[in-house]
Amino acid sequence: METSSTQSDDGVSASSAEADRVRIFDTTLRDGEQAPGFSMDRRAKLRLAQALEALGVDIIEAGFPQASPDDFNAVAEIARTLRTPTICGLSRCVPGDIDTTGRALESARHSRIHLFLSTSPLHREHKLGMSKAQVLDTAVASIERARALCHEVEFSAEDATRTEPEYLVEVFSAAVAAGATTLNVPDTVGYTTPAEMAELFTYLRQHVKGAERVIFSTHCHDDLGMAVANSLAAISAGVRQVECTINGIGERAGNASLEEIVMALKVRAPHFGVDTRIDTRKLYPTSRLLTQLTGQSVARNKAVVGDNAFAHESGIHQHGMLKHRGTYEIMRPQDVGIAETKLVLGKHSGRHALRSRLQALGHEVEESAMDGIFARFKALADKKREVHDEDLEAIALGHDPDLAGPWRIVQLQAHSNVTVAHRGSASASVKLTHDDGREVGEAAIGDGPVDAVLRAIERATGASLELTHFQVRAVSEGGDAQGQAQLIARYAERDWRGHGVSTDIVEATALAALAIVNRIERQTPAPTLAPALQTQGVTA
Ligand code: KIV
Ligand code: ZN
Predict the structure, then answer these.
(1) Does residue 186's CB lie within 6 angstroms of at least one atom of ligand 1?
(2) What average pLDDT does this structure show over 149-162?
(3) Are 540 and 450 in contact, with CB atoms under 8 Å apart?
């Protein structure tokens, strides 16, 4: 049971490692879960609580037992199951609530009742209808009642940051005398600034009677986007418990984000001079778990755990990263549990990054081939937002034989008249150029757009392909995924292969067909490439 700290007037006693440790109080299952869209059932709550235990949080606020039988049961189950962290239940300063919370926590190895009562003038008058003296007396009576039911009591002065500082000192001094061991200062409406936060804690730590025997805590909301900054300012002013949530979920704009606070303390360790018990390599997996349990993803650009947190697309940044990762990364992705930095290849990426990624994928590209590959990559990047590894492999593989002439597509159109009720025909037209200067346009109808485009290519080139194999598959993910067409045609008693890659499967098929025609023509004098066989019906 935590009963004291060794904080000194100027912040933290240098003689105690404990005084340099910030307790991480996670309220994802209480303040986080009560926000719209984030509710979890009992199984989900237990699953997340176990992940929080593995992450190394010191205190888990498992719920608000008086709120509903479900909440009570979830808190009781977490209290029964988890062994390492302190399990905490939230309670109003109401005897019935306190008793219920005590019962929910009965089997916890370390239990804490978290009492809260508003202290600000606005809340006293409009929410509670209580005088200053009534608030103080209620807080004291509640702390005394809770003490008998758990190992430790935390007292929160709700809306503390809008409370008269002298009155806050009075209430907190009485709370310490009544037996509270953690004093929490919630910035309930996310109103405070970092400088004000530091000033308030400095004042409280100087004036609250018994301040040296308790842990000061902060609980910040993000209404003005300052929750993390305010929490860090509080820590700099000697606070040694921080209340926060995974992914920053919580009421309205959310609570301070656990992963951001923990990584700020770690990355800027010399600046803050404090430590936590968090295994930071579990931050990302825990964040992912929460998104899976709630179905709510985090913004791509979310600090520490967002998809873009370790992704670099600008060519200049990628070049710098490849030379020395410190140029654009202040922490390693592995430190937060992300496998590796993602150099997202897109239209801003340069040759250097492209070559490096191709090498990582096992493709050593000759300098002479690089121009063509890079041009094809840029053309693809213009069509797609991101170019995935599979896309690159397709480009690298498809580059040489498949894109070589003599025939090239300059225009292609396909229209399908097929409906669910009626399998009508499709039509396609192509315009091709030949290295000898010809430009040929042809149109055809077919069973489907793929069949139609194949027939149009046969007409334009004068080739007739007996297809023995036809396959189209997606080679990357997403609505703008690339499709790869693989065709094998029989000609002159030989199999000829061609494959094409495009975000449009009709175009991919046309490229594959043309690759076959080109191979045949490169190896066979033109006059012998005569129409001979019928294309087999293909639909797509
Ligand atoms: O934001 C708040 O004031 C709270 C208290 C219950 C601690 O969540
Ligand atoms: Zn809150």
Answers:
(1) yes
(2) 98
(3) yes
